[in-house]
Amino acid sequence: LLPLLQRVLHSKNTKVLIIIPTRELALQCSQMLQSLIKYIDTISFVSITGGMSIDAQISQLQKEPDFILATPGRLIDMIYNYKALYYNTFSIGFYTCIQNPQISTDLIFF
Q1: Is the model more confident about 13 or about 57?
Q2: Using the 8-state DSSP alphabet, how is residue 49 labeled?
């Protein structure tokens, strides 16, 4: 998160989408990001996950946050069903958060 935060601070037009596999991990990342931007008024973020009010998440997205932390299911829902998010608005690119690195290396070297 720190390199992305630094990049957003230096370029205000930068928007970041981080795809996180589970709601629990998204909550942890949201808490970490909240603690990192505690004293920075110019940075905003929204967490887009299932199990939360979709109307509230859509209204937060309309404020154009700098960071969007999203689980895959709700992200697809926002893009295709609600048209609340457009993938071409992100200038850094897409980032994924891996929950268990051991699983990833097993998949790569299998």
Answers
A1: 57
A2: -
